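[09:14] KT: can someone run the structure on this one? pasting the chain below
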Amino acid sequence: MPSSRLLLIEHEASLRSVLDACLGELGDWEVTSSRSIQEGISLCNQHHPNVILVDASTPEDDALLLMEQLKRDSQRRAIPIVLISAKADWFTISELHQMGFLGAISKPFNPSTLSAQIHRLVSYQILPP
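[09:31] RB: done, structure tokens below
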């Protein structure tokens, strides 16, 4: 039985599939997948996730505006957003909080520990002011 609902926003189909399998099968998450931030906003309103995992690198023209909308909506509903990115190590936790993220996970990621990383971030979450 899934322990939590997770909204996955990843534009690359193959990576989205791998992440979905890692989180759903190895991590016991109930995963709703989205191929874009815009679609993710809509799915967030329908599925009410407990956490959002988003790859912010996207080909969407208005990605920054959509990301800001997603952050506003998630903060209003107290849904933590975790960034997954090859550039995750570029930021301190303080900088991530200032940008509206709970934390970040680096790519490449370890499929067997990914779910635990997300659970750990959410369990010890200190939301930005």
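[09:33] KT: thanks! The chain has a mean pLDDT of 86.
[09:34] RB: yep, looked fine to me
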